Amino acid sequence: MSLFDDDDPAQAPVRNQSTGRNRWLAIAAVSVIVLFFGISAFAAVYTDALWYDAIDFSSVFGTVFWTRTALFVIFGVLMAIMIGLPAALAYRTRPYFHPADDIGGLDRYRDAIAPLRTWLLIGISGVSGIFAGFSGAGHWRTYLMWRHGRDFDKTDAFFKKDIGFYIFDLPWWHYLVNFALTGLILGTFGAMIVHYVYGGIRLTAQRDRFTRSAQVQLSAMFGLILLVKGLDYWVDRYDLVNGSGPRLDGMTYTDQHAVLPANQILLAIAVICGALFIFNMWRRSWQLPSIAISLFAISVLLIGMIWPAIVQGFQVRPSEQDKEKPYLAANIKATQDAYGISKDNLEVTEYTSQAEADGASPEQLNETASSLPIVDPAVVHREFEQVQQGRSYYSVHEPLDISTYDVGGKERAVVLGVRELNQAGISDSDRTWTNLHTVYTHSNGVIASYANMRGADDKSESSQMQWAEGDRTGQHDLTSGQGKFQDKVYFGEDSPEYSIVGKGDDSAAVELDYNSEDGETRTTYEGSGGVPIGTNFRQLMYAIQFGSTNFLLSSRVNENSEILYDRSPKERVQKVAPWLTLDDDVYPVIVGGRIQWVVDGYTTTDRYPQAARDSFASMTDDATQTSAGVQTLPTDEINYMRNAVKATVDAYDGTVTLYEWDEADPILQTWEAAFPGTVMPKSSIPKELMEHLRYPEDLYKVQRYQLARYHVSDPDVFFSGNERWAVPEDPNDDNHQQTPYRMFLDDGSGTARWSLTSAFVPYNRPNLAAMMSVDSDATSENYGKIRISTGFPDDTQGPGMVSNEFRTDKAIADEVASFNRSGSAPVWGQVVTYPTAKNGILYVEPIYARRATASTSGYAQLAFVLVSYDGRVGYGSTLSEALEVALTGASPTPPTASDPDENPPETTPPSSGDSPREVGQLLEDARSLFAQADEAGKAGDYAERERLIAEAQDKVDQAAELISGG
């Protein structure tokens, strides 16, 4: 009699009803959860498809989506079969009668799982298949690179295989072998469990511990595992050219003479052991497989681990330089090729003009260095914001950018930023959903200043910012020749998450365009970058995607509405070209009457044979780097890099255009084959855009990092490390490398080249070792040419030494102390090392003063320009004055106060012939203007504040001229 026979029959229906109800409740709960995640997933995919369609990149979405789907299904089904089929076979071949000595208590487990047996098998296989499917889908890049891979037409130094094999083919073969090995191991483990539970394996039996069917199946599966492991050894041997070591990356002496032979021996042993397991299918004993597996384990230990350690310790270490020389030579050549720093792209010259330094005059140096950048883009960000932002809800992305524009027929370097929408500046009372997403949708305009602190004529120097583009009258030097200029910015680096645009039901414009003295101006977006959301279904999908019911309830969402999202330039380019690594520095250009964002895209890999592999973040780290990462690789390490693509994003309508740049790059060619029609040929780049393209900063920093070691081609010299360089630390931030700077550089030919430049110091020493510059003008035939200047005297100061000299100079220290006494804090700018072609090396560093107040509104203003030349230090309010002080010993002019909180400077009594009444009136007018500027600043009208400050400063200057008798 069973336990259930004792139950009260009257209660049975109640119990069954409750059980049934609970079952249906559980099913309903699971269904709701599945439905919730299913709808969310569908909304994400559906809205993604709409986004790609809106910007004409549907083919990218389709290729990625269907590739991922196919890989998910194929590898998911394969894994489910590899796990489920062995378990099912083990159950089908189970013994039907269990011997009396089956005392393991397994009957109760068999009885417990009997009702769920089929569902349990399906569930375990299905869940395993889902995980494997997601893994397969995650390897869509690996598959597409294998499917469309191109040859490099170069071979590695050891296996003599095309480099494309290591980059395109080998990763896919690794994945297939590892997948097969994982599936076979899990399938074997599952079959063993089933055999054990159902009596096919009886560990407590005195004899016949395995049934015949169990032995056949497990012998076959263990044999397959070992055969696949042998294949794994064959594939793994090619990884030796990408190994990592303390001295060098790639193949080493130990790898070639110990690890590689060991791999081949272990491959043979694995195949032999696998064959013995297969042969065991026809035997009743496990003696041969046991011997085989023991032999294999001992071989792995002795041949695979101990033998290479012996070779390294007793053959290589005593004479490492001689043993590793050919491998180091291969490493040097591969690294130079992989990073584009080979001799073909390198020009190394001896710097010889230092001898002429003694004869240089202030006028000569000032003329030579007239284009030198004085404005530090990393420091003046707040001045750009407060003087030119107009309203508190506008901001400028930090750091600012530096570029060149033709002004008055002359190429000028300008520091520029785009005025962007900053919704954090909107008052709390106005932060409604309607305002945030339908009213405050965009910003307006570009702000720019001349980098050398000289006006549009490029002659008159000033200690005040010289604006090239802004809000005030006459500040349109960059856009005046553009015709009708579209200054609206809907797509920027700091744009809001999403905005809903389009005419309302009454066709009235609702988007705030600009808030001026004449009142608010409204506009309606007319670009092509929005996704139409006029239907109820689309509104529902976006309500789910963004978690807001206002898509369904707000009257601002109607049949004319479009939604703008994924608005940052990097985000848009990354979505349409998910195979690119993007430069951290996105920069704006003014082209064709519009603002375009330029994004440099790189093809990278960590599989270039024998090349040095390093962290991308470490190589690009400096004081201004905000983020760095390689989204296309499993880790952040790379050993190959090309600037394959220049991408543009229209700031008004969000249009993304990809242009070929390095057309010879096989990785670019591979992705163009995978995504045909998405990358435009280089020849289609508009001429006006080409004039503003520049050498990318992250590529430069990676090449700079590698050139610190790999400028040496001789293995013996490289091994000794005596010629190793280092990128100097930023004098203002010891935790980061110094940021490279852009400037016009004369290489001695008489032509000023727009260049990206930085210094090298000897490893662990502060002196100047070399200068590295790259032609940054994309229209130049020498674009990308790397120029290295060496041969500096051993006592030549490096940037850190010069910075320390500035900080310890008594006169400069006294001025800095006066800042502190007056309530201002000094802000040190970038130390620029400027090797002139004829007059030696000039070092320049701006120093700014920022008023220390409880408010965060204070911004840094230029106080002095510091120079060091031929061991002489000078400072002044302008570069020419600083040079005059350094070379002649003249006294610098104290900086004039422009802070409205400060009184105008005291003056000496007027000399005979002056007009005291006129001087007094000028100073009184200046005091009044400073007070008005203070009020304008408190009201948030920073443009008016700057105008009043400038007018007041003019009054002070006029008074000073009268006093001095000018």
UniProtKB/TrEMBL annotation:
Keywords: Cell membrane, Membrane, Transmembrane, Transmembrane helix. Residues 458-481, 889-921 are annotated as: Disordered. This is Uncharacterized protein. GO terms for cellular component: extracellular region; membrane. The chain crosses the membrane at residues 24-45, 65-91, 118-140, 172-198, 218-235, 258-279, 291-310. InterPro entries: UPF0182 (IPR005372). Pfam families: UPF0182.
